[in-house]
């Protein structure tokens, strides 16, 4: 169904789509500026800074083992090394549904409520139980890279890992770099396929802080 942009309202003020995008862009920009200010005030621990200048895997691993990371600390570190040391930042992700489910069958959006019920938006041939299984059981992997020339560093997140749902582990992320002897392209292709190379580390991690 086609929608006339002039008839779409966003809130009580009745923005049309073009106006809403402008407001959204400005709000998003202001939020990002505030986020940068907050990140700039975060103290980055020495072991995290040192990994940039260490060439050996075991020495990087030693620094990583001393860390307790948070969402904001990782982003503060990324912003700092990009600004101060000229690194480039990129992010890749991969998601794999449970066996028997296909992305083309999924609704446009689905949300798992705190009480365990599922809110579904858009058409789908799947049952509510199947959609809930897709949300709870899908494998999601995210990799955040910083690169400068042949040197790269990568933090790997899995949803089970950051939520502390991997057997025998609390909330954590993983780290690897070019010192691991793995080609960057291989790491990226694995991530996009919902996999990641063995890193040999579990870094304590706290979300949303």
Textual characterization of the structure:
It contains seven helices and eight strands. It is α+β, with helices and mostly antiparallel strands. It folds into three domains: 14-43; 44-97 and 139-206, no CATH class; 103-136, no CATH class. A six-stranded mixed β-sheet has the order 1-8-7-6-5-2, with helices on both faces. It has a two-stranded antiparallel sheet with strand order 3-4. A hairpin with a 2-residue loop joins strand 5 and strand 6 (151-158). The protein is globular, with a radius of gyration of 20 Å.
What would you say about this model in short?
By secondary structure, this protein is an alpha+beta fold. Helix content is 36%, strand content 23%.
Helix-strand layout with pairing:
Blueprint: H1 17-40, H2 46-50, H3 57-64, E1 68-70, H4 71-85, E2 88-96, E3 109-112, E4 118-121, H5 128-137, E5 139-148, E6 151-158, H6 159-162, E7 172-177, H7 184-192, E8 203-206
Helix pairs in contact: 1-4
Q: What's the rounded overall pLDDT mean?
A: 84
Shape: globular
Residue share in helices? Answer: 25-40%
Strand order within the widest sheet? 1-8-7-6-5-2
Overall structural class, as computed from helix and strand content, comes to: alpha+beta
- Total strand segments: 8
Q: Biggest sheet, in brief?
A: 6 strands, mixed
Q: How many structural units, i.e. domains?
A: 3
CA gyration radius, whole angstroms: 20 Å
């Amino acid at each position: 169904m086609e929608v006339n942009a002039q008839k779409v309202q966003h809130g009580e003020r009745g923005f049309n789509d073009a106006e809403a995008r402008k407001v959204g862009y400005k709000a998003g920009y202001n939020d990002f500026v505030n986020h940068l200010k907050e990140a700039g005030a975060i103290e980055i621990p020495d072991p995290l800074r040192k990994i940039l200048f260490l060439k050996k895997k075991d020495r990087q691993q030693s620094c990583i083992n001393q860390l307790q990371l948070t969402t904001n600390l990782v982003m503060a570190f990324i912003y700092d090394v990009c600004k101060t040391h000229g690194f480039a930042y990129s992010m890749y992700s991969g998601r794999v549904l449970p066996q028997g489910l296909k992305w083309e069958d999924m609704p446009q959006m689905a949300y798992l409520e705190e009480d365990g019920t599922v809110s579904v938006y858009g058409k789908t041939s799947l049952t509510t139980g199947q959609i809930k299984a897709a949300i709870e059981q899908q494998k999601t992997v995210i990799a955040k890279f910083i690169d400068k020339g042949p040197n790269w560093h990568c933090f790997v997140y899995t949803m089970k890992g950051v939520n502390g749902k991997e057997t025998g582990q609390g909330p954590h992320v993983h780290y690897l770099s070019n010192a691991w002897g793995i080609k960057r392209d291989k790491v990226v292709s694995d991530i996009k396929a919902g996999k990641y190379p063995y890193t040999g580390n579990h870094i304590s991690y706290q979300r949303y802080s």
